[in-house]
Recover the amino acids of this structure.
């Protein structure tokens, strides 16, 4: 069952990768001697990731740059994954309230998470781990017990987090509180990998971390990249194509990881008020933004808030240049 679900996700993300590459291949691009983009695909961050480089001004071979980029992704995974025993996040969780020294990157990730937790009044909350670890959306087919969820919810609350910026330490005031940065980590890593590739001379590329898409520049001929918004619960069918340059595209939806139990859909985006999957009036939210970490956190928060409260949230905030698309029943509506 786990293998079949993983392959299903692989195929869906592979379709998106293929779409991105196919739409870009016919731009007449030349990538430092290559007639087509040089790409690498691997399973990291519990998903299928692809990086395709189209052009660059550096002296290094693109294959070497790609290998190093994936090594860098794995380094971040070893810092941020709540599933890796000695990661920064796991050490915080296993400290049971004791002060924990972390890396600068982890400190920055948690700081960003707190920002969006406060802005969304907890709709996005990095302390959801006590609840999220009860749910198995990879191989499970049954929800946790109500009593288990109620107990776990009592330890969820971003105000439990205290940061000591000077000492680079994290403390949880509730010993049973735990962090799960899954709603922002891929976005943050996408931003860092973009910086990494730019430093290595890459001038045109697509970074696709399992659906979190980050663009470097435009196509080598100067035209926009085309990124599709997928139809929920389809085999890669695209509802809308976005023409974009040097931006990020992140989608949060109820079709990404889910199971059915007693004819009811249970998806992986959890309501911090109930501990159960969010009952949203949308199937997905797509955010186009400059920084992928912002798009990742915002897409999660907006899905949790729902369409009307999400619009109010956007209207009240100062999020810079954003494009937000709500998807429901195969219809895409642009807002903001």
């Amino acid at each position: 069952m786990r293998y079949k679900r993983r392959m299903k996700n692989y195929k869906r993300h592979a379709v998106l990768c293929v779409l991105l590459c196919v739409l870009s291949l016919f731009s007449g691009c030349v990538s430092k001697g290559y007639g087509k983009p040089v790409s690498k695909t691997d399973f990291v961050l519990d998903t299928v990731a692809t990086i395709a480089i189209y052009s660059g001004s550096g002296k290094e071979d693109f294959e070497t740059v790609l290998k190093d980029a994936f090594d860098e992704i794995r380094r971040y995974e070893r810092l941020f994954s709540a599933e890796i025993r000695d990661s920064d996040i796991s050490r915080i969780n296993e400290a049971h309230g004791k002060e924990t020294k972390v890396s600068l990157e982890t400190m920055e990730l948690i700081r960003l998470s707190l920002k969006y937790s406060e802005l969304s009044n907890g709709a996005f909350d990095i302390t959801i781990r006590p609840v999220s670890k009860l749910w198995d959306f990879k191989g499970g087919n049954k929800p946790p017990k109500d009593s288990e969820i109620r107990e776990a919810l009592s330890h969820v609350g971003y105000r439990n987090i205290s940061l000591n910026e000077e000492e680079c330490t994290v403390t949880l005031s509730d010993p049973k509180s735990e962090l799960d940065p899954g709603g922002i980590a891929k976005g943050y890593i996408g931003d860092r990998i973009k910086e990494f590739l730019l430093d290595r001379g890459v001038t045109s590329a697509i970074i696709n971390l399992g659906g979190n898409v980050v663009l470097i520049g435009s196509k080598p001929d100067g035209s926009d990249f085309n990124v599709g918004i997928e139809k929920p619960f389809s085999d890669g069918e695209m509802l809308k194509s976005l023409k974009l340059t040097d931006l990020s595209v992140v989608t949060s939806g109820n079709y990404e990881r889910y199971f059915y139990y007693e004819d009811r859909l249970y998806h992986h985006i959890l309501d911090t008020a109930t501990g159960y999957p969010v009952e949203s009036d949308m199937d997905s939210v797509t955010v186009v933004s400059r920084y992928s970490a912002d798009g990742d956190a915002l897409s999660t928060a907006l899905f949790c808030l729902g369409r009307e409260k999400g619009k109010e949230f956007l209207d009240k905030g100062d999020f810079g240049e954003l494009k937000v698309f709500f998807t429901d029943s195969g219809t895409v509506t642009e807002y903001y």
